Automatic annotation (TrEMBL):
Domain YjeF N-terminal: 11-209
Sites where the protein binds K(+): N59, D119, S155
Gene: nnrD
Organism from which the protein derives: Chelatococcus reniformis
Binding sites annotated in the UniProt record for (6S)-NADPHX: 58-62, 123-129, 152, 254, 317, 372, 440
Record-given protein name: Bifunctional NAD(P)H-hydrate repair enzyme
Family per record: In the C-terminal section; belongs to the NnrD/CARKD family. Belongs to the NnrE/AIBP family.
């Protein structure tokens, strides 16, 4: 199954195109219900009690199909319908007509008596916050502690944003159709889904391609072909030279973490540019990484006269203020690839327009911005269309469009967005990746990949994935220093898979 993610409207279009191409909607619903049936059957002993809760739309229709097929397999099925059976329309009405068992009112069923619950209340058609009977039912499902298989999306989760609309079903497993939706990856939706399975209901790859809008799950097939594989004929100077700007004497560790990650990610050479009063502190800790003194923006400008520095990383430990903003501005004028993190971003708080100028002055080199949520909100506080965007995916995309840079909006569900509209949602970061200095390492990996000539979007997406993978491989107890040391294993797996 492809990595595309389908928004609610895109999924509706894909359904409609498939129907227009000759597959009746009722057939799609039958396949959807059959996939749910198979998922339930894998989790339930024959004869176990299954409660199917149907809503008023086609999500409920899938539930009616599943109820019929589960009963035919010998399960004890009871079914409740939210709303009036006479109000069902189209394919849902047809599917309901084929269910010959009783249809109960939700208030009259004992939710906790079921071995497993099928949640077919709302899917991509959820139009507003749950209230009244729907809200009460969802609360009863969650309080029951029963296993729940959700149809398409746990009811109450917005498929585009992953937001909880009033309340939402906490599922143990979710069966979705054709492709995943952003809500299966974005928080909090992802945790409400449990495990997620994508069922093929006959929507072709071509139809998905025609309907999808360049949003993907972040995984190696998106960028593996762009990962530079060192050649025996190459040499270190061909793998780029990253320059990482250090903070003052008491704030040097962040830059060194980033520099080591850049080197481990494959940059040919890495140099730390250090304020003169921090040179000795840096010197005491660096071996393979080189060190150059640098005094303010003028000092950075002099260093950049050396064209071999093809990537600059500014931000980790840099300090917030005009001095850091000046470094960024100097770097911008030199057409080098740029990774801006942490304090470099906060030094432009409320001044995304200023950052846009810097990005434009780097053209055609790539610029990657790596804010976490707080830095993002500060940076874009004057850009209403960014901060008020309805989903994290939209926020990152609009930020990329506004700045002209690749934006990595970090979190457990990091979104990577390019100015051309491409976006990827990451899902491999373990909880223990949230540790001091981990962002510095991410920025360093991105710089290391850019140094080797990767494009901005691919470098950023690969860096985010490699960072998550390194943390997963290391396991709990991880500290940021460990990440770079696991990168060789991550890289050899990636390169092994390319060969
Ligand atoms: N042909 C198709 O379009 C297919 C659709 N499928 C299923 O159909 C679902 C989408 O169906 P629909 O577009 O009918 O949408 P849903 O079934 O998700 O929900 C729409 C219905 O819920 C009501 N509703 C929305 N929000 C509500 C709220 N907060 N409180 C109370 N009522 C609310 C609406 O008035 C409408 O009656 C998918 O998630 C999927 O499960 C599958 O059967 C595959 C084929
Ligand atoms: K559902």
């Amino acid at each position: 199954m492809g990595l595309e993610l389908l928004l609610n409207a895109e999924m509706r279009r894909a359904d409609a195109m498939t129907i227009a191409d000759g597959t009746p909607g009722r057939t799609l619903m039958e396949r959807a219900g059959a996939a749910v049936t198979a998922a339930v059957a894998r989790r339930c002993a024959a004869g176990e009690r299954v409660l199917v809760l149907c809503g008023p739309g086609n999500n409920g229709g899938d539930g009616f199909v599943a109820a019929r097929l589960l009963a035919a397999r010998g399960h004890q099925v009871s079914l409740a319908l939210l709303g009036d059976g006479a109000a069902l329309r189209g394919d849902a009405a047809l599917a309901a007509a084929e269910w010959t068992g009783p249809v109960a009112a939700p208030g009259s069923v004992a939710v906790e008596a079921a071995g497993l619950i099928v949640d077919a209340l709302f899917g991509t058609g959820l139009g507003r916050d749950l209230d009244g009977e729907a809200l009460a039912l969802v609360e009863r499902i969650n309080a029951s502690g029963r296993r729940v298989v959700a149809v398409d999306i746990p009811s109450g989760i917005n498929g585009d944003s992953g937001a909880v609309c009033g309340a939402a079903v906490r599922a143990t497993h979710t069966v979705t159709f054709a492709r995943r939706k952003p809500a299966h990856l974005l928080l909090p939706g992802r945790v409400y889904c449990g495990t997620v399975e994508v069922a093929d209901i006959g929507i072709t790859d071509a139809t998905v391609a025609a309907c999808a809008s360049d949003a993907f799950a972040n995984a190696p097939p998106l960028w593996r072909g762009h990962i530079p594989v060192p050649s025996i004929e190459g040499h270190k100077y061909k793998r780029g030279h990253a320059l990482v700007v250090s903070g003052g004497p008491t704030a040097t560790g962040a830059a060194r973490l980033a520099a080591r990650a850049a080197l481990r990610a494959g940059a040919g050479l890495v140099t730390v540019a250090s304020p003169p009063d921090a040179v000795m502190v840096n010197a005491a800790h660096l071996t393979a990484i080189m060190l150059r003194p640098m005094e303010g923006a003028a000092g950075l400008a002099r260093l950049l006269d050396d064209r071999r520095f093809n990537v600059l990383l500014i931000g980790p430990g840099a300090g917030v203020g005009q001095a850091t903003a000046d470094l960024v501005a100097i770097a911008g004028g030199r057409q080098r690839s740029l990774v801006l993190d942490a304090d470099a971003l906060t030094s432009f708080a409320g001044n995304a327009a200023g950052l846009r100028q810097v990005v434009a002055s780097c053209h055609p080199a790539a610029v990657i911005l790596t804010p976490h949520g707080g830095e993002f909100a500060a940076l874009f506080k004057a850009e209403d269309e960014v901060v008020r965007a309805p989903t994290k995916l939209d926020q990152a995309r609009r930020a990329a469009a506004v700045t002209g840079a690749v934006v990595v909006l970090k979190g457990a569900d990091t979104v990577i967005a390019a100015p051309d509209g491409r976006a990827a949602i990451n899902e491999n970061a373990p909880a223990w990746l949230g540790t001091a200095g981990s962002g510095d390492v991410l920025a360093g990996i991105a710089a290391g990949l850019l140094a080797q000539g990767m494009n901005g979007f691919e470098a950023a997406a690969a860096a985010v994935w490699m960072h998550g993978e390194a943390a997963t491989m290391f396991g709990p107890g991880l500290i940021s220093e460990d990440l770079a040391e696991v990168l060789p294993k991550v890289l050899s797996r990636l390169m092994g898979a390319t060969a």
